[in-house]
Amino acid sequence: MSINGPVLPLYVESLGISVIGWSVLAAAFAVGMFLLEWVWGSLCDRTDRRLLMISSVLCMSVIFALYTLHSLVPLFIVLQLLSGAVGVIIGPTTRVYVTHDSPDKSIGLYASVWWAFHNLGRVVGPLLGTYIAQSWSFEYSFYTSSALSIALAFIIMVSFPSDKKRQRAGNPSSIMRGLKVVLAQRSARLLLLSAVFSFMGLSVMRSFLPLYAAEQIKMSTVDVGVLFASVWGAQLFAMPLLGWVSDRFGKKRTVFLGFVLSSCLFLLYFLVGTSYQLLLVSVAVGVGLSGTSLLLAMVPDVAPNRMYGATVGVYGSFEDLGSITGPLIFGFVWSAFGPVFIFAASSITQLLGAVLILAIEQQRSMHTRSIGESSRRIGVASTSGNTCHGK
């Protein structure tokens, strides 16, 4: 997928599509993810995850090839919807493996390591994709993604064990009922909303940073690939470190600091004037956004019993909601106020995410105090009762 990360916006721009048009296409991809990710997550609780993963990558191999047909440009919005709806299957399936199979005391580290390997693909992909696009053509980068998808299907088939025997009993018979159960918890709703703001910030990096680098800083296609590889490479090291820190000092505290840090760092884009400055600021922002991985580690804290897959799927859909609203809002801000103001808007989204994390902290602390007070009252009553019996 990441081979075409910075390539796709540059490709559609070369076809004469405007920034607003690209923002709609980027949002369409996220809409496809949003509509179905929670469904795929629920299916992870009741069907073979390996089969879901193989189906996803084989369908993507076809969709990648279709992007090269210029006659389908008017239908790119449909391809984006399909790409999001089918490609997103990999997200909840692998996340369920991580959140369900990790040791309880190390889930922050395990989730961060998963994100780190996720970002390893983001490091290699942009370098490979932009090199192919500049050396040959944009179309060849899509052909490469298609070929790798077919290879991945074979790898999954021979290396992942079938998990049909690992189905857990007690899941709600209705997927919609499972969705309602998850959303009924206030702590879950706050975490899901924080994921929206987190991915709004990520969307400005994924969808608009390539255009900003190419149009405003005049970076070449390969230079844009190096920029993205550097950002995701920094996260490759930052995420496991943050995971280790969160397991020792608390996930919510670490996530809150990540939101605040990224909110401040986004404002540094107003000082950028050269490609080197853009690289340094983008790497710093990438490190600040590394706390995103810990939101996934917080999912088991709010997941109803025996509903990891459904909760992870719903969580992913709210990430997608951020990826939908982000490009639409930032595309408008780019056109109405100027390109650099998209980073100011991103700073605001991260600050709002920090406020939501604080609300979760307050809720949990209030809950803890109420439990403590109840325990003390029970203790007093128990003591009185024992005294009476003694008399």
Itemize the secondary structure elements and their pairings.
Blueprint: H1 7-14, H2 19-43, H3 49-66, H4 76-87, H5 90-101, H6 107-135, H7 138-159, H8 175-183, H9 186-215, H10 221-249, H11 251-266, H12 275-288, H13 292-302, H14 308-337, H15 341-390
Features:
391 residues, mainly alpha, Growth Hormone, Chain: A, 81% helix, 0% strand, disordered C terminus
Which class best fits the helix and strand makeup?
mainly alpha
The CATH superfamily label reads MFS general substrate transporter like domains
Q: What is CATH's topology name?
A: Growth Hormone, Chain: A
What percent of residues are in strands?
Answer: under 5%
Q: Specify the overall morphology.
A: globular
Main CATH class: Mainly Alpha
Tally of discrete structural domains: 1
Q: Main beta sheet: strand number and arrangement?
A: none
In total, the number of strands is: 0
Instruction: Give the helix level as a range of percent.
Output: over 70%
Distance from first to last alpha carbon: 75 Å
CATH architecture group name: Up-down Bundle
List the helices and strands in order.
HHHHHHHHHHHHHHH
Radius of gyration: 23 Å
- Flag low-confidence runs: 166-173, 362-391
Number of helices: 15
Average pLDDT over all residues? 80
How is this structure best described in words?
This protein has 391 residues and is an all-alpha fold. The protein has one domain: MFS general substrate transporter like domains (Growth Hormone, Chain: A). The protein contains 15 helices and no strands. It has helices spanning 7-14, 19-43, 49-66, 76-87, 90-101, 107-135, 138-159, 175-183, 186-215, 221-249, 251-266, 275-288, 292-302, 308-337, 341-390. The radius of gyration is 23 Å and the shape is globular. Mean pLDDT is 80; it is low at 166-173 and 362-391.
